């Protein structure tokens, strides 16, 4: 059986990647914004407009789903498809990092020669 084709979802933007990674547990929007900023060491800061636009898109794509609503807070979680797309993005990033390290090592050797 052929592997599923996730090309219509990939590559993920940095903000979308972090939103999906943050959803290793169901969270509401404000908690996601805080977690993304912490995980990214402050390099990615997502505002409410960006986050809720991303929620809409990710829900339509079937990557996340609202799982509960409590005191006007909507909690979202990854779907099975969302987990699979995130795993494929991680595989792609692993390849990129490996190739980047190889290139950096080659450049370092050339610079020392």
Concise synopsis of the structure shown:
This protein is of the alpha+beta class. It is 58% helix and 13% strand.
Write up what this structure looks like.
With 113 residues, the protein is α+β, with helices and mostly antiparallel strands. The protein has one domain (14-112): Arc Repressor Mutant, subunit A, CATH 1.10.10. The chain contains four helices and three strands. The protein has helices at residues 14-22, 29-39, 48-60, 80-112; strands at residues 27-28, 64-70, 73-78. The protein has a three-stranded antiparallel sheet. It is globular, with a radius of gyration of 17 Å. The model has no long low-confidence stretch (mean pLDDT 94). It holds the Pfam family PadR. It comes from Massilia niabensis.
Blueprint of the fold:
Layout: H1 14-22, E1 27-28, H2 29-39, H3 48-60, E2 64-70, E3 73-78, H4 80-112
Antiparallel strand pairs: 1-3, 2-3
Helix pairs in contact: 1-2
Which properties best describe this structure?
13% strand, globular, alpha+beta, 113 residues, three-stranded antiparallel β-sheet, 4 helices, Arc Repressor Mutant, subunit A
